[in-house]
Amino acid sequence: MPLKKKITASSIKQFSVEDKRINDTEIHGFHARISATGRIVYYLYYRHDGKQVNYKLGTAHDLTPAQARDLAKQKAGDVAKGNNVHDERKQARQESQRRKHLKLPVYLDERYLPYLQTRNPKTAQRIVNHIKSRFAFLMDKELDQITAWEVEKWRSEQRKKGKAASTINHSVNSLKGALSRAVEWGLIESHELTKVKAIKADNTRLRYLTDMEEKRLRHAIKHRDQDIRLARRSANEHRAIRNYSLYPCLDDVTFVDYVEPLILLAINTGLRRGELLSLEWRDIYFSERYLQVRGGNAKSKEGRIVPLNNEAYDTLASWREQNPEATYLFEGKNGQPLTDVKKPWGTVLGLANIEGFNFHDLRHHFASKLVMAGVDLNTVRELLGHADLKMTLRYAHLAPEHKAAAVSLIGKR
Q1: Domain of life here (predicted)?
Q2: Rounded-to-integer distance, Cα 268 and Cα 276, Å
Q3: What is the rounded end-to-end Cα distance, in angstroms, of the chain?
Q4: Which CATH class is domain 99-195?
């Protein structure tokens, strides 16, 4: 008799040749088979027009149990709509035969990008551009010609350049995801990147500003603002002499552009860059003095409320006064939210003479200041939007007085 249990990493790890088959207890028809050699394959059994179909989802070599489960749910949903996913795969394979020499950039633009756009339109183009940029040396390759050796060689070069393990892993996983989808669609039989294991990353890096660095950063922001104001005055003097229309004067506004309010809000709220850039003015509650991070814009997919301190409140009030018609807090010229702030951020860091500090580190800076001020870690966790306390515990060493107080409890007579 086949085993009946939920197919998970644990149950697959315990799966033996003698068991032969596991039927999932949650998704009807989802099952795994193991051969005499120990090869595990995931399937979805279903009926279509009275015929029995056993649809191969993929091998345990190419799919994790969680990925197989997600794929089984997706295909079961397609079957429920009346689709014969087995025939669709056959058609995809026939198409792959017709397009035997499908190259990576063509696949990314014509197949993968439209798929990503159905999942998350905001990030779809960014993911494709990221793959093209990081793996430009693969852009003349056909899908089934991409080897693990080439990617390992690239990865080694990136490490020599000092790239962080997490950054490299993100790039490799992006490419893996694209190729795994091509396997699922029957465009290629398999890919070699399953052999490329993730680099074990040290996620304990905590970079926050010293008091002196924060002073230099704030001074640099004002320095940049003044440079822009002077440049605007000079440009308008030049245009006035030639009877050209003048640019808007920047002498009478609090902020010359979005950079200062963006950085000040990051320092005082600890929001991630993506959360900041996704904020709309409807998410700011001035009368109650808080902002709302919507679940769809949060990494954890759970919304949260972040109170506004005086500096954050005053910054937003002034910025709103300058942008009364805007939808997003930080908009580009097309009325869409900004997506990249690397250039102005790099300018500010250069003026402040601060090295080894990323925009994301402003989030660490916010958390570190809270912990050093005596705020308990669970409150810090809630403000940061961490799913559990594990990530927040990285800041625990910044509150040694709490540990000292705890130990002193057992020293009392």
Answers
A1: Bacteria
A2: 12
A3: 65
A4: mainly alpha
